[in-house]
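USER: Study each token:
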Amino acid sequence: MIKIAIVGATGMVGGKMLELLSNEYKVKNSKLFLFSSEKSAGKKIKVNNVEYVCITLNQENLEIMRPNFVLFAAGGDISKQFIPIVKKLGGISIDNSSAFRMDENTPLVVPEVNKYVLDDPRYNVQGVPLVIANPNCSTIQSVVVLKPLEDAFSIKRVIFSTYQAVSGSGKDGIKDFEITKEGKINEFYPHPIYNNLIPHIDVFLENGYTKEEEKMINETRKILGKQDLAITATTVRVPILNCHSVSMNIEFKNDITIEQVKNVLENAEKENKGLVVVDDVQNNVYPMPMIADNKDPVYVGRIRMDSSRQNTINLFCVADNVRKGAATNAVQIMHHIINNANS
């Protein structure tokens, strides 16, 4: 019996993890446990006519349950407090917060891109890493597109511009969208989000970038294994409910043609590398949030040469930030580890 626990199941990402594990990502011979704050303990969540009761997250209950896998979706402070306890108990933690992403002893994983790092001896305890970090939502969808291009042409520089949905801020972001749509005062964002764009995600740093922008830069370098890769980013909150969009300007070290670039991305789609090419502008076909909603692939299109710079392209990608950008990615990591153990 594989015991799987979700921390933060009453939140958006934790709830989506529960939904996935109860449906298309079900693990054979497994049992699900939901951990929550003391305030939410006893709350009942029903999925597929199965009722789950939230249990208080504390050391005593972790020691009693001894889960094999714990999917954390409750913020960095909770992860820092309880992941060391899970590790001592021999369980595997997959963390959706930023707490361990840049830790040199923790793999940062997108299965379609770098699942091989799960086998790296420097991370392993008893054959697998006991702590695995889930990247930032916008980083995840971006590297799914960048990886096949990096392998084919070697990337020299990337410029990210993001258009991030309010669901990326959880229930507070969605509430702010709804109340400002009704003309009420914003409670969560620094400005009204309805009928507006806010070029400000997370806190500002001394260098003028936001923490969200810094996350994208540093995490992309770590995942692609290129610490010297030139990257810059601007991240923007936009007034839609779900699905993040990312515009990328990508410069390559090697000579390219647009036909070669499209072939690489189309082949990645055929090889089930997590992306779908949606690029028929003559018929107004391109990636949009409405086609990515509640789906796992990263949709990529608007693929074209940058007419101002040699060996450089522009493209646009969209993905469901709650699914692939968070919950699905974590669940896929767990599935990979379980499948490896059974093979």
